[in-house]
Amino acid sequence: MREAMIVWGGWMGHEPDQAAKIVSDMLTEHGFKVRVETSTKAFADPAIADLSLIVPIITMSKIEKDELANLTSAVREGVGLAGFHGGMCDAFRDAVDYQFMTGGQWVAHPGNVIDFRVNIARPDDPVTEGIGDFDYRSEQYYMHVDPSNEVLATTTFTGEHAPWIDGGVMPVAWKRRHGKGRVFYSALGHVASEFQVPQMRTLLERGMLWAAR
């Protein structure tokens, strides 16, 4: 049986506890044994090297050097990493090794919760297959992203809330490699209720399955 670990915490405005329960149920339905932790200390456990998948759901927190070193080593050696929104790509703002692994870092969401459109960039990919472009209401993430990411979906900023970024095309979902490990990220999922949006849920579900070894 494949085993996954979810670690939740940090800023509670993203409802990480509720999201962790939803993600745990999703993975359990696919036959995973799921371990749920509430402290970054879990990343320092040498046993994570044997996991199939790690899902961080931690916004604006700190990670200790030994925790980060063990986590990045596990992914480099083949453990999958997958996550969403600030829970993965606004987790540890001062940890550049973490950002190097995830492929992006949140920097702004102009207008806060707004309506925007998500465009599928790779309709032929198994993660996005059958998902067309869709309208979405959430924080439209403006991010600093790694050019080596394989971008699966994007969004275009109108400039209504920040005129200088008008027309800017920003990745919404991507996959990448970090050493032997597969990494997936989706910027969607500000609060737990967004899992009710089929496209959001499907992207994350397929992305986690892709990333897991």
Description:
The protein contains 5 helices and 11 strands. It is globular and about 45 Å long. It has a 9-stranded mixed sheet with strand order 2-1-3-4-11-10-9-6-7. A two-stranded antiparallel ribbon has the order 5-8. By secondary structure, it is of the alpha/beta class. The model has no long low-confidence stretch (mean pLDDT 98). The longest helix is centred in the N-terminal third of the chain and has 14 residues, at 16-29.
Overall pLDDT, averaged? Answer: 98
Low-confidence stretches: none
Question: How much strand content do the residues show?
Answer: 25-35%
Number of distinct beta strands: 11
Question: Multimeric state of these chains?
Answer: single chain
Helix content: 10-25%
Shape: globular
Order of helices and strands: EHEEHEHHEEEEEEEH
Strands side by side in the biggest sheet: 2-1-3-4-11-10-9-6-7
Structural class: alpha/beta
Count of DSSP-assigned helices: 5
* Rg (CA only): 16 Å
| Major sheet details | 9 strands, mixed
Distance between the termini: 11 Å
What would you say about this model in short?
It holds the Pfam family ThuA. This protein has 213 residues and is α/β, with parallel strands linked by helices.
List keywords for this structure.
213 residues; alpha/beta; 9-stranded mixed sheet; two-stranded antiparallel ribbon; 5 helices; 11 strands; 24% helix; ThuA-like; Class_I_gatase-like
